[in-house]
Fold these 2 entries.
Entry 1:
Amino acid sequence: MTSNLKALVVSLALVGAAAPCSASVITFEGFPDQTVFTTQDFGSGVTFAGATILSLPGSLNPAFPPHSGHNVVYNPIGAMTLNFTTAVDFFSGFFTYNQPLVIQAYDSLNNLLDTANGACTANYIGSGTGCLDNEFLQVDAIGAIAKVVIAGGGGNNFTLDDAEFTGSRDPGVPEPATMAMLLGGLGALGLSRRRRAAAL
């Protein structure tokens, strides 16, 4: 393989290795207290169901403090659901709750992919459990999460802040399988040239 071809293969491998998915973080800041949070435009490809903004000061009980800023979302009735327009690799957030909490990730066919449970029965300030508020929880399933359901009680029992998830891949960056095929093809090309040069 010529030195130029070797350099090309190495540089393509490094580009593929250094091209992670972009992550989206929703802080819930900038929305008025009691905003029903559904399809607000933050360019992240996610819609919410069962989520309402609470602000401090305002409607937010200080026993459920934000992880950052002044706003959180809570579940006024039942579960909170996030639906992603493009499947994501993970979903995470900071949760304060007054009943046992469970987060479940599903694929586009509604198959359960991953589950995360709160460490305590409650973690709000003054709960007496010894657990700290704003517990970090995450569910993972690379490139497969189409929906996340957060539940734990009949409603008004948890707050979520600083929700994070991977967005869709940059269309200019090849998927790992595409990169592997490209590198394999370049390797075969180099081997072919080497054989041809040896035959001369």
Entry 2:
Amino acid sequence: MQYLLLMLAVLSEVTGTSLLKATEGFTRLWPTVACLSAYGLAFLALSRAVQRGLDVGIGYAIWAGLGTTLIVAIGAVFLHERLTAAKLLGVALIIAGVIVVNLAGGH
């Protein structure tokens, strides 16, 4: 259950981040409401995952790593942001870091 909550947290955070541009600096009401609601759900789901026994460090590493990876992919596909070798290397290093944290920090 804690990993399902973590995945909900990741997807909600990615949704909120994806909506940031549409808020136009939080000047557009409905995109702002959707963005902040998604972030609220992300933190709620992450806190519930931790409450149910997920280590904070491991949960946050997965949340941040998957979120970053998905946002880079969304930026490239939907926002036409450039994917450079440096970005891809950075994402690979983040993924490697999440793996190391998980291998080193589990129960």
